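Collaboration report, partner site 2.

Our partner group contributed sequences for two proteins of shared interest, and the home lab folded both. The records are reproduced in the order in which they were received, starting with the first partner submission.
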Amino acid sequence: MIKPLFWEDNRLFIVDQTLLPLEYKQIEIKNHLDMADAVKRLAIRGAPAIGIAAAAGLVVGLKSFINSGSTIFLEKLDEITAILNSTRPTAVNLSWALKRMKSVAKSMKHKPVPDIWDRLYQEALTIHQEDIAMCQAIARHGQNLIPEKANILTHCNTGGLATGGLGTALGIIITAYQNGKDIHVYVDETRPLLQGARLTAWELTEEKVPYTLISDNMAAYVMSTQNIDAVIVGADRIAANGDTANKIGTYGLAVLADFHNVPFYIAAPSSTIDPGIQSGQQITIEERDGNEVRNLFGTQISPMNSKAISPAFDVTPNKLIAGIITEKGRFGTPYNFL
């Protein structure tokens, strides 16, 4: 199983995903600022994975304050939480994990600081282990929706690199293939940062799952000519009504799938559901630097003075979604995630 984040002798490491697939490099995260930088520059990414990363980043950030008094320790906890929470605004898993960690610490505020820190470390490990189990359950539920012979289109990266386990949407696909289904995957390149071309194609290569890489603007052609049986993607935040924010380009795929009568599925752990948001209109969309569009890995591909925008996500309305698959099963309209 691919591990984007792991502990070794109480030291925290991540795989730098900005270098894949050309280089596989593990880097040590020594403090919360290292983790904040890694999340911001997408060295670690994917909604479930950055939730796990935020919890772990809080732990390593607080390690320097184990010998402080509880007042200072809890003040630093608030400070570090705020820094990590500000890194990426759309994926709710990040704030969900930090709230959970903060609640644990506050419940132990009268305990010795080393005990609080150790409990936080154990909670971070628990969040990671829970995500592994959720990925396995999502795969079990989701593979039942895939025909014995299927062409599936996916977008961005939703495998082991994006989670604590085997993945969400890609976990479903890989599990179905490993269980004997005749699967072929069409992988959107996913501009502007090519997470599909760089990461999903790499994971499918590692798992020996047959796939074809396509540019994003080939999706309509592929749906009309290649007998696509399903589109399965992940999510970064799901509103109470089922509206779903995911990597930019997902909304367009859902519209195309609807036109071509192809079922469009979302796969995500329940930690991605935000019951405090009633619809997708309330989801904050992360705006990244326009240079991500003007450049392609350091090479200028547009005139220097080109105006460019880079929204990291878009929102797919619930009416375009055939089902949302979580570890609890498949949900459909009207959505009731309880």
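Second partner submission, folded after the first:
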Amino acid sequence: MQRHLISAADLTRDDAVLILDTAEEMARVADRPIKKLPTLRGRTIVNLFFEDSTRTRISFEAAEKRLSADVINFSAKGSSVSKGESLKDTAQTLEAMGVDAVVIRHGASGAPYRLANSGWIDAAVINAGDGTHQHPTQALLDAFTMRRRLIGRDAGLGQDLSGRRITVVGDVLHSRVARSNVDLLHTLGAEVTLVAPPTLVPVGVETWPCEVSYDLDSTLPKCDAVMMLRVQRERMNAAFFPTEREYSRRYGLDGDRMARLPEHAIVMHPGPMVRGMEITAEVADSDRCTAVEQVANGVSIRMAVLYLLLGGNEPAVTHSRTEEK
């Protein structure tokens, strides 16, 4: 493992499988009466969020607290950032406080990389989403969910996703989730197909390690998992498709389309879901949809990442030691 987690593309196959396997150990902690490990006691972690977030911020905070870290939550709203303070000055303030890790979400692509390589702060940096660039822990929790559902919890240990076929559908242009998943799933041996309107396919996508299709119906019968993406209107400054109804007709997942999937295939969504547009309520509430599972798995994955970056070499879960009361 490297010192920082900035991009899913930075992970080797062995790194990724190590994180997934460690997350399986961390998931067992959630089944205990006391969901806490002393692993990061005395370590200070700052959640530095320049963009709004619900799932990611709460997930990281839950992971940090389950590992007994001291947690500082920083929101740009109501802070000196809203007065014009730069990322550099904010970082130097955190450095003066002696933090051990910074979890950063930023609207500017490349901000976590800048923070990690600037020399402004001597702490591990974890990218919680930067612009339309990367969201590595989301890709890891998605892969963790796929491995559990498609291979099995214990059977999946040490395994990657070789030969699995994953279809990612929707607003690929503005999606850091899509970019991160393409990188990580390729590293884990999966075959990825992107499906989107031509206007929502990024320039240069031909260099990505995946296939591109504009026809959702033709890809569904042969995929193991289909991941629906939200249309990110907040990042759009133009009309990328005629109407919501037209988008939903061509690229939305409803009950009829779900029926075309193989019996074992799962439906995924990183959230938040816009029901009735990219996914219908019938699909979102079905047993095949893993959206709620993905949220739970996110805590285990983020515990694993924090442990591997900050926890040292001792076993992730010690069974001989008396559990912390």
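Feedback sent to the partner group on the second submission included the following. The beta strands are 44-49, 70-75, 101-106, 124-130, 165-169, 191-195, 211-213, 225-228, 266-268. The mean pLDDT is 89.
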